[in-house]
Amino acid sequence: LMAGGGIPCGNRLDLIAQPTDLLPTLMDLAGAHFAPPAPFHGKSFAKALKSGTGRHRDVAVSGRFMKLDQGMPECHCPPFVATDDWGYAPVGVDGKPELYALNEDPLAENNVAGDNGDVLKEMQGLFLEHLKQNDGAEDYVQAWEKLLR
């Protein structure tokens, strides 16, 4: 939910965004300029908000990076990858990847990974690419690559 900063009232914009996109978006809406010591991983969606149209991202990943001392931690909050059509958890409750057809199952209740091997591989690739593009630690990326083989 966003309001103010030149955003038209009463509009609904269905776009994919990530938490890292909020700070750049708020800065754009406020007209603020900041030179961080390292680039933001997020990108502003202020233009789409102001126009009421457009796309922002094709993929969003929620989760967090973890320091790995001895491989993947036993207890962690696994990432979740979302596109317009699919939701993907690299590690589900039974330790295996899960895939959800979000258009038909918006609450991600019915794992369809067994019936959609090609989509599962595509989502795994999107997840690993996201880690690499967002400066995931090499040992972290390698641990996920090994786990997803």
Walk me through the structure.
With 149 residues, this protein is α+β, with helices and mostly antiparallel strands. It is built from four helices and four strands; from the N terminus they run H-H-E-E-E-E-H-H. It has a four-stranded antiparallel sheet with strand order 1-2-3-4, with helices on one face. Strand 2 and strand 3 form a beta hairpin. Helix 3 (117-133) runs antiparallel to helix 4 (138-148). The longest helix is centred in the C-terminal third of the chain and has 17 residues, at 117-133. It starts with 21 loop residues before the first helix and ends with a helix.
Summarize the structure.
The chain is of the alpha+beta class and 149 residues long. Helices cover 29% and strands 9% of the residues.
What characteristics describe this protein?
4 strands, 4-stranded antiparallel sheet, alpha+beta, 9% strand, 149 residues, 29% helix
β-sheet strand percentage: 5-15%
Average pLDDT score: 83
Largest sheet: 4 strands, antiparallel
Helix content: 25-40%
What is the alpha-carbon Rg in Å?
Answer: 17 Å
Tally of helical runs = 4
For this entry, what is the oligomeric state of its chains? single chain
- Principal-axes geometry comes out as flat
Residue runs with pLDDT of under 50 for 5 or more positions: none
